[in-house]
Write a structure and sequence with these properties.
Immunoglobulin-like; six-stranded mixed beta sheet; five-stranded antiparallel beta sheet
């Protein structure tokens, strides 16, 4: 080894020793790895750092910064970050050196904290020495919290009294004086406050020495409802109802379908009301309740599900056969939303007969006879009714049917009147001729069994006809009865009546006529003809 080579090796060794020593002396220490601060307050994040006084007798100069973001592999100084403009500052004191080592402190101050300031903050310092840069991971995590009003009900049996507690997730060291506000007005001081939820209003608390106040807590405002998709709701489509309300604490939502005065839960609490395939029966009014621990508000919305026509039917007035020359009106009805329009057709015809719910045919003829139907249609579909057959009858046939009907009706009435009058006359005759002790019994043998013989006895012998020529005997009605203590008239020829029991013959009219009378004896014959009228003969 030559002297020159040895010298170069010794120089390399000398240069490497301070570098190794310097690496060991670059350090950064944070006062805490987590910091929590209240919103709108000011927070300080502190650190200390160390570095070598010099490297190869070259004094070290230090440059410091804080960052949360990296751009192009280089830290972005918070003092140049637009999100922190006017809100950040560094407080770094004079570095002090003790022998070969120097150390310093640096504080990051952030004012008017926002919830967006939640991040990991890192300190970095650079020097004028080669590779003299240093950053320590993981840095300091900053949590930004707020004063919160916690609502609770200490007494489960009394839901009308709520306890409001002012607190923070970060916690506040020491004893603090809390001030309570209702609708912006000071209502007292303390840690807790009691309030009636139904009294309404908004509430907040504040820590005076920190000039901090909590967000307001309040019952839900009147909810709003949105329908998705918006516009007309067609049967079979998917529909979602969303309910929202301004409330703190956040409100829970419950849906009900209103049916008169009855309400039925129609969805899980806190979830939107979703119809995967909405039906016409889902039409109606729905109510959304928004509720938190401080109160409840409701809102209603009407859902109108539209659909095409169905259940289309047709009828005629008058019904049945239509008399030729008269008029008939056909009417159509259908279940549809919106209401359907109607068009009338005749079977095997493509042309439209009429438009409208009613179709009137005047002065009808046999040519109008046939099947008719209507078509109901709206923006969501169309539907045809079944056929209605119109039968046209001639006027003469109609008149005959009408006359026949009237004749049959009159005949029935006359028959009923005749039977009623006959029954009445018979009852009256019985009431006039009968006695309470009269008992009627059927006669075994009629009194006038041989009417011809009786007649021959009453007519002179010279005027009698041969026996083969019979007399004509006419009866309207004959009734027989047997009655005790009643005598048969003695003037009746050929009568054989016992005093204790007599048969009686009851009839209305008996006419005895002699046919083929001798002309010369006509007057005598007429004189001998007998016509007897009896109403009632009883014994």
């Amino acid at each position: 080894m030559t002297l020159r080579s040895a010298a170069r090796g010794f120089l390399a060794f000398l240069l490497s020793v301070p570098a190794l020593q310097g690496i060991d002396q670059w350090t950064v220490t944070y006062s805490s790895s987590n910091v929590c601060a209240l919103r709108k307050s000011t927070v300080d994040i502190n650190c200390t750092y160390e570095y070598p006084d010099n490297v190869l007798y070259h004094p070290t100069k230090v440059y410091t910064l804080w960052f949360t973001k990296v751009s192009n592999d280089q830290p972005v100084d918070l003092q140049g970050d637009a999100d922190y403009t006017g809100r950040v500052g560094y407080s770094c004191g004079e570095d002090s050196c003790n022998g070969s080592r120097c150390h310093g402190t640096c504080t990051l101050r952030i004012k008017d904290l926002r919830e967006s300031d939640f991040a990991v903050y890192k300190f970095r310092f650079t020097t004028n020495q080669p590779r003299g840069e240093y950053t320590v991971d993981p840095g300091v995590t900053l949590f930004v919290s707020d004063l919160q009003v916690k609502v609770s009900f200490p007494d489960p049996t009394d839901p009308t009294r709520a306890e409001l507690e002012c607190h923070s997730r970060c916690g506040l060291a020491g004893n603090h004086l809390y001030t309570w506000f209702r609708n912006g007005e000071n209502v007292g001081q303390g840690v807790n406050s009691w309030v009636q939820p139904q009294s309404g209003g908004s509430y907040s608390c504040a820590v005076e020495e920190h000039n901090l106040s909590s967000p307001l807590v309040y019952a839900p405002k009147t909810p709003s409802v949105t329908v998705s998709p918006s516009g007309e709701i067609e049967e079979g489509s998917s529909v979602t109802l969303n309910c929202s309300s301004d409330a703190n604490p956040a409100a829970d939502y419950t849906w009900f379908k209103v049916n008169g005065d009855n309400f039925s839960r129609d969805t899980n609490q806190g979830q939107p009301l979703f119809f995967r395939r909405i039906l016409s029966t889902n039409s109606g009014r729905y109510r959304c309740d928004a509720q938190n621990k401080l109160g409840k508000e409701s809102v209603s919305i009407s859902i109108n599900v539209q659909y095409g026509p169905n259940h289309t039917s047709v009828y005629s007035s008058p019904s049945g056969g239509i008399e030729e020359g008269s008029s008939v009106t056909l009417s159509c009805s259908s279940d549809a939303n919106p209401a359907a329009n109607y068009t009338w057709f005749r079977e095997h015809e493509d042309s439209v007969r009429e438009s409208g719910q009613n179709y009137t045919i005047t002065n009808i003829t046999s040519e109008h006879e046939g099947n008719y139907y209507c078509q109901a249609h709206n923006a969501f579909g169309r539907h045809n009714s079944s056929f209605l057959f119109i039968k046209v009858t001639s006027s003469s046939l109609t008149a005959m049917v009408a006359v026949s009907t009237i004749v049959m009706l009159l005949a029935t009435i006359l028959l009923l009147v005749f039977l009623w009058m006959r029954k009445r006359a018979f009852r009256k005759a019985c009431e006039q001729g009968g006695r309470p002790d009269t008992v009627e019994e059927p006669l075994p043998v009629p009194v006038y069994e041989n009417a011809s013989a009786l007649t021959n006895q009453m007519v002179p012998t010279a005027l009698r006809e041969p026996t083969e020529e019979h007399d004509d005997l006419h009866y309207a009605s004959i009734h027989t009865s047997r009655s005790k203590n009643q005598e048969v008239p003695r003037w009746l020829p050929g009568s054989r009546v016992q005093s204790d029991q007599t048969d009686a013959l009851i009839y209305s009219v008996v006419n005895v006529k002699r046919p083929n009378a001798v002309p010369g004896e006509r007057e005598k014959t007429e004189a001998t003809e007998t016509s007897v009228l009896y109403s009632t003969v009883k014994k």
